[in-house]
Amino acid sequence: MSYLDEKVRGGRDRQKQALIAEAGKAGAQIHDIVELDASAASSGAVLGGALKAMFGGRMRVDALMLFRLSSNGWGHSYVQPFSGFAPLPGEHYGIVDGSLASPAIVRDGPRLFGGVSFDPAPGAEVAKHLSASPAMKAALRELVWEWPSGMAKIELDWAVQLRSVGDGTTQVVMQSGRYGGLTTYEVGFGVWLRLCAAVHPCLAQGAWPAQYFPVPPRFADVLAGPAPASSPVEPEPALTVALDYGPAIAEALRPHLGKKVWLGEGPAKKMANLRKHVIPAELAGVPTLATIDLTVFGSAKDAIVLTPTQLLTKEFDDRLRVELATILDVPAGQSAASSSVEITVARLGSVKVPVGTDFQPVHDLLAAVARVNAGAAGPVHAEVSAFIGEAPGQVSMAEAQQLQAQAQAQMHAGSVDAKINAAASLLVGGQYQAAIDMYLQIAREHPERTGTCYGQVGAGLFFIQHYARAIEYYEAAKQHGADPRMMDENIAEARAYL
């Protein structure tokens, strides 16, 4: 590899790591990263006209990264273009329920008193309706219209577009300005999510005919079909999330146990800091397998936390969330003086995990997870779910925290039936990941109830649109005594979405 190739690869990888961290801060989970390069033999047809896109009249796109994400079960995508090693303005894509009588666009132009509004040209009534929404006004004020790059600056001609897809949904696209970053670029994941939250109440029920965007987005053809971001990508997993990592993690961390490394529940003050600063609110009630405190003085406000299914990290403002079952490898030869451990994650590629002040425990922990995955043969436990159909309605943050607190109390002191009922409350309350983790723990502690627990795990995976994994749990549930007829019905419904 030439020096120039290494520079290009390094620049693109730094931007990828920055986007992973930014998405984590915004509460979005990345399910897949597809890298498309003009030199790849298979990429020509996929990239199509996207490689012809020009910025500022001189910068041509020669590579793309397609990020597929989900936030609270809602799927969306981001396309990051590059010219050499330099990132260029990308585009966010998503599908929202409801439709509009005409397409809509927010263009660059005069902004009286700092205000931004929709252009009336594609449809005056729709533009007026959207611009009148207080939530929409607040979202539009956050938009950034410039992308500084070295001594140059790319100015966006539009920032937001909406079009009815024709099936009762609306496709939303946001072009990204530079929302921060010094040597890398923040692309506004948080702004994007707040924008889409503002769009949804403005849409009407019913299906208007399919529409075109007023200005064709540069990268729409890269996505598969007219509405590719309507659901989170569910790639076929080589591994299942039902593995028991506890013994391997305990063995790996045994030489490092102390004030900054512990298994299970740690000191009360540190656990309070973890749940306030590190663990996302929707996972506040889940059990923890292990924790590595990344702070200098031991506050645990920055840390690595493992739940039965998730790797969670926070260091300063950078956050990372990865499913344990997707950690494939910890490449050999890494320096103990490094500030991070490089891991290989299915569908994401290389990801860097911070180590704080001590490289070795983090390295040993991640290597243990990768070894468990390498030897995985299938699900570990399982049982039934009767929660198939429309997903339960979402609850407020306060209600979610109350559900999680009740669930945590039952896990420490309740009977097995009380634990299962508490997990069911999380599931019905829309706290899917917390419910999944709790059911997995119950199955480990009460093997005789494995069938019930794994059936509910299948329901949780169904609701977050992990249909292939849901089927695995339903099949395993049958093997542990679940009602075969009910499981077969659930499997048939999940297969219909594949």
The biggest sheet, with number of strands, parallel, antiparallel or mixed sense and barrel status, is: 8 strands, antiparallel
What is the number of beta strands?
20
Shape type: globular
Counted by DSSP, the helix tally is 14
Instruction: Give the structural class.
Output: alpha+beta
Cα(first) to Cα(last) distance is: 40 Å
- How much β-strand is present in the residues? 15-25%
Instruction: Tell me, rounded to a whole number, the average pLDDT.
Output: 81
Could you list the spans in which at least 5 consecutive residues all have pLDDT below 50? Answer: 40-46, 225-242, 376-398
Q: State the share of residues found in helices, binned by percent.
A: 25-40%
Backbone CA Rg: 23 Å
